[in-house]
Amino acid sequence: MRRLTMFNNISLDGYFVDAQGEMSWARVDSDDAEFAEFTAGNVRGDGVLVFGRVTYDLMAGFWPTPAAAQHFPEVARRMNTGLKIVFSRTLGKAGWNNVTLVNEDPSAALGRLKREQGPDLVILGSGTIVAQAAAAGLIDEYQFVVNPVILGTGRSLFESVSTRPQLKLLKNRAFKNGRTYLTYAPAPGGNV
Question: How far apart, in whole angstroms, are the C-alpha atoms of residue 128 and residue 109?
Answer without folding.
Answer: 14
